Batch of 3 targets.
Target 1
Amino acid sequence: MKRGFILGKFLPPHAGHVTLIQAARALVDELTILVCSTPGDTIPGEERVQWLRQLFPTCTIAWHNEELPRHSSDSPDFWKIWRGLITETHPKRIDYFFGGEAYGADLAREFHAFFVPLGARVLEADQSALGGLSGEKIRADPWKHWDFLPGPVRSHYAMTICLHGVESVGKSMLAERLAQHYRTLVVPEYGRTHCETHGTDCRELDLLLIGEAQQAMIEAARPWCNRLLIADTDALMTAAWSQMMIGYMPDQLICHRKADLYLVLGTDAPFIDDGTRIYGEPETRARFDRVARDVLRIAQSNIVEISGNWDERFHASCAAIEGLIAARGLSIS
């Protein structure tokens, strides 16, 4: 029975960590990973632990969330502290300490274990790719290193752009065009398919399911998108439908994760009745539009108004998206 041990901050986990852990797991029967975090970290330790458990379900993932000395000069009890922590985390014999940095050899000696200098940083190779990755670089510009982020971390750093508006304002068409332009995914509207399947006579339970299903589709797509995720709609629009259909908005529809940006499409687009639309009369359509905008205000959403012909809407949407990207200090290419 061979047992291995890895420790790190994983702030955030990246391809260098993933390849290290996968290689280490292949060499031992049991692998324990200790995530070291502090309460002030930019990504909570608990979230990183959940990511690693999702990525490596056959490993034991332990967590320590307090300040620790990083160098022997930081504390006269440096080795006593680390020996105590690791022994508490892994009371069984450790056969292999895995790591790509020299401190692993010192830790291995303290536990009479064998140091295996494994991973992307060995010999400082491949500095333009895996070997040059670091949590600091990724935190500075995660989108620049997108190809080296595992799914859960991509989900954390992805931005969702949601189209918002009443019937027949071109949401689906614009969503597809934006997704093609940014080489990413679009999450389609669940509610339309639901109503085509089950009819448009929706009650509260139907509307709650529509909102939950829409948000579940968005969350499931986040790890697979290319930095941006384009959503045809989300639960906030379902809340507006609820107000129109049943006279109130269930709280559950307001409480989901909000998109980073809502593009609010104006009603200056021509109304086209395709057989599934309900609120086509001018007065009712105007009321629906007011309700849809009120929902965004209630949710304190980040919005940009979009109007004009189809090309004008597309270019205005791109400008709004790229303004948000720049404001967050990210790079799209």
Target 2
Amino acid sequence: MASVTIKDVARVAQVSVATVSRALNGHGNVAEEVRNRVLAAANELRYTPHAAARSLSSRRTQTLGVVLPDLHGEFFSELMRGIDQVARASRLHLLVSSYHGNPEEQGAALRAMRGRVDGLLVMSPYVATPTVLSEHLEPSLPAVLINSQAGLDGAAVIGVDNYGGAVAMVRHLFDSGHRRIAFIAGPEDNFDAHERLRGYRDALAELLPDARPWVVQGGFDEASGHRAGRELLAASPRPDAVFAANDMMALGCLFGFAQSGVRVPQDIALSGFDDIPLARYVHPSLTTMRVNIAELGARAARQLLARVAGESLPDSGAGSASATSSIALPTELIVRESSVANATSGNPKS
């Protein structure tokens, strides 16, 4: 039996060879109905593009690179889920690397991606991001930065409204009657942590102008949240509410409170940020700022595909794929039992 060619797929789908090529390569300028027809024809004929020939003709590797500070934890699992869904829909592969927060390993990972990928998704949430990336990121390689500080010419930046989310959480705790609101901060060199701390400070200054910020340093992990919680319990008077800069620290803090017999929220209210899946299943369920983490990964991947194709998305704010753009996804207040007694889990209005 003769091998099936792209011309056969075009004939069955009743479109041009160029349209088949664009549909199979995940280009955005193909109508969804046409793309589905092409994919159905390819499946019916059991057509498999010749990877080597396709790379030679298009100069594409059909692979996206993903460089993250870590791969451990629910946040990164959800982020990768969103990225993978978009990549699979476009029949692309992922090349993933983690640098464990080490700038030298990050530079090595970025250099190792050269020539192997068509574009890069990079999460570099550190204050020194522009310097590190400008030294190691290939200027001609399309790139989208996730949860990173803006400042790299030509790169799109997509993240979340950390500042606005932190302001909204402090306001919720204030509206719930709390006046001694402590904050467990994230790493000092982390951009997300910096913005959440800034939101806490500004909201506290607006709502409680006579109160001094009460900040305990954490590290975005459960252990640092546990240590911070024990430190806060040793204070006199204790805080009546604690806002942790992420859910993992909030869960560590919750465990420390439970060990000391402190009731949440009756004795101390507690809240986090991110809304990782575990947040709704602990007891009491955790009040948090919801970040659609999988959607963050999916939006970043779609933005990258548009840049690889030389296009711009309607919401990118960019006139061309080479222009710098920045998108901040909104957060959503999710009120659960840890900040309001008898709260309805998952209902932001309760």
Target 3
Amino acid sequence: MNMRINRVGTSGLEVSELGLGTFEWGHRVSAETAQELVDAYAEAGGTVLELPSFASPAAEVVGSLSLPSEIALIARVGVDVDTRGARLSLGRRTILTQVESLLRRTGRDRLDVLVLEGFDAQVPLAETASALDTVLRSGAVVHVAAAHHTGWQLAVLRAAGIPLVAALSELSLLDRRAESEVLPAAEYLGIGVIAGSALGRGILPGRYATGVPRDSRAAGAGREWVTEKLTAESEQVMAGVTKAAAGLGVSPLDVALAWNRALPVACSLVGPRSVAQLREILDSEFVLEPEIRDALDQISDP
């Protein structure tokens, strides 16, 4: 695959069209496999490594790896875990503490993109903005992005002086909610979009067509996250994807990636658990004809 490099909105940040997610790292992906994934991904021109929530063990795995200098690390903050459980918190103390911890755990001297993991209506925006200004001025963070935000929330952050460069939002043929509000808001604000779960939480390649494989994500810790999308609506979408793939002589994965590739997004995130899965993704360069894309749009219209 000849990986495209895209500019993120109107910022100076550039990223590869595919980003490598680390959702399973530290769980069912060992450090050895993670290194193999990074090596193969970087060799193909990939530049984005995305960490899940702050509490994930993936940070320690990343800290044990040898990462090429061109790899940009995207890390999330804002999920605070204590005796009360997990909750959203974007106060100054949480942001500064979690940034410091992420730097230590990953062995990095900076985080290329710091992602706010939600919109915290309980904390004054001025406090969040002040904490972000501190880490940006210190060089600990280079850019700021926001995940799980609506269009108006993105606008509110910008109005508060938070220099957002990107919005992270789940976006695939199985989840197109971002198209109605996040994409137009991002375009208006001049910020980029990073599409999460580009393969529909692993469903779009067709692995769950006849049930839940024992080695699948839905058979492990990610069960609820995946099965949430295994609905009658997703079955209808998968039927259309499978039919299109069969008629075109390609795989459902090819169709799913081609659909995302045509979106106005800077990067689409994928989370392969093996080098074989990653190779299949990297080898996919299929392009959808407009009439096929229109048909898929109609089938998957939310």
